[in-house]
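Fold this complex.
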Amino acid sequence: MMIFILFATFAVFLLVGLPLAFAMGLSAIAAIFLGSGQSLFIIPQRIYGSLDSFALLAVPLFILAGELMNSGGITERIVRFSRSAMGHFKGGLAQANILSNMFMAALSGSSLADLSAIGSMMIPAMAREGYKKSFAVAVTSCAALMAPIIPPSVIAVIYGSITGISIGALFLAGAIPGIMAGLGIMILTRVMASKSGAKAMPRGSWSQFAGTGLSALPAMAVPVIIVGGILSGIFTPTEAGAVAVAYALVFGIMTRKHNAGGLYSLIISAGVTTSSALLTLAGASLFSYVLVASGFAQATLDLLVATTDTPWQAMLLVFLILVVLGMFVETVSALILVTPILIPIVGHYGFNEIQFGIFTLMTLVMGGLTPPVGILAMVACRIAGIEYGKTFGMLTPFILWWAVATLLVGFVPALTTWLPSMVLN
Amino acid sequence: MPHDKENRRALAQSLPVRIIRHALEATVAAVVFSYAMIICTQVFYRYVLNSSLVWSEELVRYGLLWGVMLGAALASDRNAHVALDPLRGKVSDDTYRIVSWCSGILVIVFCAVTAWYGWQYAYRIRLMHSPASQISMIYVYAAIPVGCVLIAFFTIVQLFSGTYGANSSEEELLA
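Structure:
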C-alpha cells in the first residue's frame, strides 16, 4: 500500500512539474501518512540526518572552488595550453578540447561547471575552424562526463556519504577509469575527424608551448594539493575542498581577476547550486526511507536473485536499469534513489564496493548525453546554437564508447581497485 | 491586461520582497564563505599550531543544514530547483497556468507540513545540547521550519507574479 501511494503520487507530482526534491519528499510524506500512520517526526529527522555530515561539506566547497578557478582565469590558461599541445594534430582543436576537459576534471567535481566553462570557449572556436557544430557538441559534452569520475567528484562525495565507503578511495578509484574514458574519446575523435570537417592548425613554436605550459602551471598545482593531500593523509576530502577554495581565491586576487561584487554573487550562486542538489538529497532520503521501510528494496533484491545467480548477469542487469533511469532522472537524484536498493545487491553478489561505486557513477552520468533529457548535450547545444535533436547522430558513437568504458569498469576489477590498493595499503 | 501584468511582476520586485531577498543572499553568502574559512582554520590549527579545534567540525555541519535550507529558499526565488516539467509547451497556456499553480501549491503543502513537524520536533528537543559546542539543538533544527517558511514565501511571490517555474527547465537552470 505504502509503495503504491509513493509511486502513484510521485508520478503525478513529476507530471505537474514539481521540482524533484519536493516531489520525492511530498510523495514520501503521503505514503507515510496514508500508508503507515507512523509519526511524521520522521520528516525533520531524515532531513537533518541526511545533511548532518562533514563529508557532504565537500560539495559546496568543490563547487565554489570550481567557480573561483573559472572566474580567476584558470580555465582559460588550461585551454590555451591544451591548444598549443594538441592543436597541430588532425582534429587538433577537438583533441585540445578533450585534454582541457581532462585537466578541468582534475580541478572540479561536476560536469556542468566544466562544460559551460570549456564549452563556451571551445565550441565557438571549433565552429569557426569549420568543424560541424553537432560534432563539437558531441565531443564537448562527452568529454565533460570525465569531471565527476576523475577526482575530485561531487557525486563521489555524495555516494560515499550515503554508503559510508571511503571518499578518498572512491576518488582514487575513479582516476584510471576517467583517464581511460578520455583517451578513448580522443581515439574516437581521431577516427571521426575526417567526417566532421576537422583540420590541423599550424604547429606553434616550442617557446609558445613552454609559455602556455608555464602559465597553466598554477592550475596544475590544484590536483596535486587535492589528491596528494588526501592520499598522504594530510587532510580529508572536505578539508581539501576548503584549501582549494583558498588557493583559487588567492590565485584570482593575485591575477587581479576577482573583484568584491563578482565574488559576492559567485559565492551566492555556489550556495544556490549546492542547495538545490542537497535539498534533493534530503527529499530523496525521505523517499528512500519509504522504499526500504515498505520492503521494496528487499523485494527488488529478491527479484534480481530469482532472475539470475550469476554476478556478471546481475551486473549487466543493473547497468541496463540504471541507464534507463539515468535517461529520465537527473544524476544526483537518481544516485540517491538507487543507492539504498543497490547496497544489498553489492553484498549478495560479493561485488567489490569501490568498483561497483565507480561503475554506478559512470552509468548514471551517461544520462547527461542520452535523450530525452541529456542535460549536458542540451547545454552544449545552446552554446553552439543548434537543436538538440540534430546531434543524436554524432552523439551515438560517443555514448556507445562511454557505455563500453563503463562495462569495462564493471567487469575488470583492476581498473578501479589497483590504484587504491597501491596507495592506501 | 498589460498594466495588470506589470503590477503583478512588481510584487517580486517590491521593497519588502527585495529586502528579504537581499538579507537572505547576504546570509547565504556568509554561511558558504564561513565553511571554507572555518575549515581552513581547522587545518591551520592542526598543522601549524599543533592543536585541534573541537567546535569547528560540529559548527560547519550545522552550518550546512542552515546553508542548504536558506539556499533552497533562494533557489525558489531564482527558479533554480531541478524539475522535469514535462507538460511545458505541450499543453495550452491556460492549462499550463493551472498546472503550474498546482505545482506551486504542492510545494507550499510540502513546506507547511515540514515546517510544522520540523518546528514541533525542534521544540521537543530544545533541552538537548550539541556535544562539542553545547548549542541547544533547537537552534540547529530551527533551520528546517525557517527554510520551509521562506521557500513557501518565495513560491507564493512567484505564483502571484506569474513567474513561477519561468526558467525551471533543467537546461536553463544549469547553464
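Chain B has one domain: 2-81+90-174.
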